[in-house]
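## tool: complex_structure
## caller: assistant
## args:
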Amino acid sequence: MTVPVTWQDVAALLPEFFLVVWASALLLLDVFWIREKRTTAWLSALGFVVALVLAVGQMGRAPLLAFRGMVIADAFSVFLVALFALSGLVGILLAQDYLARNGIERGEFYVLLMFSVVGMMLMARVADLVMIFLALELFSLPLYVMTGFARPRADSEEAALKYFLLGAFASGFMAFGIALVYGATSTTSLPHMVDVIQAGEADLALLTAGAALVLTGLGFKIATVPFHMWTPDVYHGAPSPVSGFMAATAKMAGFAALLRLFVLVFPVVADLTPVLWALAALSMVLGNVAAIAQRNIKRLLAYSSIAHAGYMLSAAVAFADPHLGPQAVAAILFYLVAYVLATFGAWGVVILLERRIGQEGLLLEDYAGLSRQYPGLAAAMAVFMLSFIGVPPTLGFFGKFYLFRVVLDAGFVGLALIGVLTSLVSAYYYLRVVMLMYMKPGEPIVRREPRVQATVLAAAALTLFLGLTAASSLYAWATEAILRFG
Amino acid sequence: MFLETVAHEGATFFHLAPLAVFVPLLGVLLNAFFGRRWGERGVAIVAVGASGFAFVIAVLQALSLMAHPEGAVVPIAEWITIGDLRVAWAQKIDTLSVTMMLVVSGVGTLIHIYAVSYMHYDVRYKGDPGRYARFFVYFNLFIAMMMILVTGDSYLTLFVGWEGVGLCSFLLIGFWYEMDILGRPSTANARAAMKAFVVNRVGDAGFLLAMFLTFWFFGSLQFDEVFPRVHEVAAEHPWVLLAISLLLLLGVTGKSAQIPLFVWLPDAMAGPTPVSALIHAATMVTAGVYLITRSHEIYAAAPMAQEIAAMVGGLTALVAASMAVSQYDIKKVLAYSTISQLGFMVAAVGMGAFVAGMFHLVTHAFFKALLFLGSGSVIIALERAHHPLPEEGGHGHEHDEHGHHAEHHDEHEPFNPQDMRVMGGLLKRIPVTAWTYIIAALALAGIPPLAGFWSKDEILLEAKHLQPVVYALLSAAAFLTAFYITRQVLMVFFGKPRSEAAAHAVESPRLMTGVLVTLAVLSAVGGFMNAPGVHAFGHWLEHTLGHVPVLEFDPVVAGVSTLIGLVAIFLAWRVYRATFAWTEWSQDPLRRYLRGLYDVLAHAWYWDELYQVVFVRGYRALAGFLAFAVDWTFWHDWFHDVLIAGGYRRLSRFLSQPVDLGIIDGIANGLGNSVRGLALVMRRLQSGYVRNYALAVMLGVVSMLVYVAWALR
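## result:
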C-alpha cells in the first residue's frame, strides 16, 4: 500500500523538513566544499533562523494531523518548535568558539545538533506512540555522540558511554511500556486511543502499567529521580556547550511528550498521580540537597536541573484533573521558558570561565572576584541564579508562582510546601555563587568571546525584563498553546 | 429692550450666569501674566472691565428673573464623584443670589473704578509702583470668589467661595505685608492678615461641622435637597437643626465679625482703603448675613438659635458702636461701625426679619462703601498735600530709592494721614468728598429720607415686634451710631485745619469723586426700593424666601429712631464743638464726661487684651506644655527612647543572643548540617558506576509497578 504524502503533510512539518534537508545538505557540503568549520556553524545557525521563521509562520493555524495521524501541528507543538529552533541557534552560538578553542570543532557537530533538534521538535508533534519512540531516539542518539565529542578525553567518552547505556536501558522500558499500552488499547494512534479509552474498551491495568513504563523512559530524559543518576556525570563529562544544550532542550522535549501523553491520553490512569507526586517531590528534595554538596559548577547545574525537573513535574501531577490540565500545561511552558533562558545563560558563563576543557575554571572558587573584573558578566550570572531561586522580579519568580498556583489549585498542599521549602534550600547554593562573585577576592580568567557574551547578556536581560514587564503576557501566550488532537 | 425680550419671548439669560465667575477669573489671569507689561492703564481696563462684565451678567440675571421669578439652577461642572456621592458645581439663580450678585458686582465695579485712581497714589506713597497689577489681580479674584459664594447651589460650593474670599481678604489685608500702615518696616500688616485668617478659621471650623452634620442627617449639601426635608429631620432629631444653625452662626460670627470673633476686622484696616470698602464693609463681611438668609428654613426650625443669633447681633451692634465712639483713626471708626451695622443685619436675619436684614445689607453696602471711599479720599488728599508726587510738582524727595516716605521725617511720630486729629476743616478744601461723606454719614445715622433710615427703621420695627430686648439694644446702638459718625464728621471736616497737610489738602481726581457721587446718590435714594408702600425689594425676595409678612409702617418707631439720631447728632455737636478750637493734639472732649469709661472704649473694651491673655497665652502655654512636657519629655524622651527604643533594644538583645544564637541558630545550623550531611551521603551514592545507576532506574521502575499493582488490586 502506497501512502501518498500530500503537501499538507509537508506543510505541517515544514520546519522539521527544512532542517532535515538543510542538515543533510550541510553534511555533504561540510565534507566536500567547506574549508572553514566556522562557515558550517554559520550555515547551521542560518538554518535555525529559517526554521524559526517557518515555525512562527505556523502560529495561529488550526490544528492539523499529518502523515496519517502520526504527527500533529497544534498551538502547543508550534510554541515548542519555535522554542527548539531558537534553542538550536543559541546552542550553536555557545558551542562554536568553545569547540574551536579546544580543537574539537568538527563539522558534524552542527549537523548532529540539527538532527537532535529535529527529533526534539517531533517530540512536540507526536500523535502516535511509535512516533514518540522514534523522536526520542532521533534526538537522543546525536546527544550521545555530542556528549563524547571531546574525544579523546576520557571523561567525555565515559560520559557518552554512560549516557548511551542508560539511555538504551530507559528506552527499553519505554518500548515495553508502549507495547503494554498498545496491548491495552489495541492502537498506537493517540487520538484513537482517546476514543478507545472513552468507550471503556481499554484494559486499565495494562494501560496503567504501560503508562508507568513510558513515564520511566520520559523521566529518564527529563532527569527526574530516580532516573536521574546519569545527569551529573554526563553534564560533567560532556563539553560544556553540549551540557547546556542538553540541560535546556532535552528536558523540554521530554516534557513535550509527557504532557501530551498524560494530559490528553492518560487522565484515565489517575492511579499514577501518587507516582508522579513522589517523582516530583524526590526530584525537588534530592536535586536541591545534593546540589549543596557540589563544588564543581557543572555538577551543581546538573543537580539544579534535576530539581527544576521536579518543580515542573509537580505541576504535571494535576494531569488527571480535566480542568487543571490546560493550566498545568501553561505553567510548565512558562517555567520552561524561564528555565531555558537561565540555563543557557548560566552555561554560557560556565563556557566563558572554563579555561581548558574539563579541567580549570570549573570550581565554584574560580568564580571568586568575578564582579570586580567583569561586573556585567557577574551581574548576569547573579540574575540567572536569582531566577533559578525564584526571586522577584526575575522570570523564575513568575514561573514558580504559576507552577505553585496550579499545584495548590489541585490541592497538593504538601507538594507545594516541599517546593517552597526546597526553593529555600536552593537559595543556599545559588547564592553561594553570587556571594563568591561579589564578596570574595579572586582573579578569575574570562575569555573574550563576543557571541557567547552577547548570548549571556541577552538571556540576562530577557530574564530580568520579561519578568518586570511581560510576565503576564508571556503566560497568556503560554495559555494559548493548548494541547489538542484535531 | 432686554426687558421686553425677556418678558415677551420668554428667553432668559440664566445660562450666562457662569460668566460672572469666569470673566473675573480671566481678568485675574490676564493681569497676573501681562499686568506688568500693560502698565496701569491696561491693568485698570482689564480689571474694571472684568468686574463690570460681571455686573452686566448680574443685571441680565435680574431681568431674566423678572420674567421667570422661579429662577434656575445652572450646572457648570461635575465636581466630585465618589461612589453614589455626586457633587456638581452648579449656580443657583434666584432673587436672593442675584441680589447679592448685583451688590457685589455693582458696588464692586464702582470700587474698582475708584481703586484705579486710589492705588495709583497708594503704590507710590508706599514705594512699590510695581504692585499695582497685583492689587487688581487679587481684587478680580475676590469678585470671582464672591460670585462662587453667592451663586453656589450647595453648602459645599458656598464654602469654596467662602474660603476663597477669605484668602483674598488675607492677601489684601497683608497687601503691604512688609510694613505697617504708616509705611514703616514692620510685620504689623502681615500680622493683621494672619489674625484675620486665623480668627476666621475658628468660624470656618463651625461652618464645617455644620456641613458635616447636615450631610450626616440630610445626606446632601444641596440647598434644594436639604431645605424640603427640614421639617422631617426636625421631627426625628430636634437637636440637629439647633446644632447646625448654631454652628453656622459660629461661622457667621467669624466672617461677619460678630461677637465673639469680631476682633479681626479692626486690624483688617491695614489693607488699602478700597479693600476695606469692598471686602470689609460692603460685600465679604455680609456673606454671613447671606448665609443665614439662605438657610432661613433651618433657622425657622430652630427658634432658640434665632434668639441667640438676634442677641449676638444686637449685642455686637451696641458694643461695636460704643467702641467706635472713641477711635482716632478715621478707618478704625468705620471698622467698628461696620461691625456694629453687621450686628444690625445679623440681629434682623437672626430673628427672622430676612427682608429687613437683606435690605440693610444693600443700603449699608452703598453708604458704608461711600464712607470708606470718602475716608480714602481724605487720606489721599492729606498725603498729596503732605508730599505731592513728582508728577504733580512735588519735590520727589519723599519717595526716593528707599521707598518708605515716613523715614524721611524728622518728627518723632511720622505723619499719619489716617489720624483724625491731624484733620479738621476739610469741608472747604475737599468739598465733593466732604458732602458725599456727610450724606453717607446721615444715611448711617438713620436720618430720613436717606437709605439707611428705611432699612434701619425696618429692622427696628421688626425687632420691636419680635424681640423687644434686641430692639432696646439696637436703639441704643443707633444712638451711638449717630453720635460717633457725627463726631467723625466734625473732627474731619469742620473747624480749623489742625495740620499743614489738612490746610493744603487737594480734592481727589474726578475718577474718585465720580464714584463718590454715584454712591452718594445710591445712599440717598437707595432706601426707596423698600420704603413703606413700595416694598419692591420685599416682593422681589419673596420669590426665594416665601411669603414675608409686611409690618405696617409705624410712625412711632420711625419717629423715635429719627429722634434718637437727631439727639445724638446734637449731643455730639455739643461735645465736639470743642475740637473746632483744637490747634494741636489734646484730650478728647468726651473724656471729660466719661473719664475711665472712655479709655475702656478706646481700648475696645480690652477685648483684644482679654483674648491675648485667655486664648493666645493660654494657647501658647498649652502648646508649650504639649511640646516640651508631653511631646518631648514624656513622649520622645520617655515613651520612645526609654520604653519603645530601650525595650526594643532589650528585647532584640534577648532575641538575638539566647533565642536566636542559642535556639534558632542551633536548630538552623543543625538543619543545615544535616542537609549537608545528607548531601554528602548522596554524593557517595553517586558512585560513577553505570550498573549502580541502572540499578537505581530498575528499583524505581519496580517500585512504580509494585505500587500500580497495589493500587489496581
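## assistant note: Chain A is about 75% helix and 0% strand. The first helix of chain A runs from residue 7 to 12. Handing back to user.
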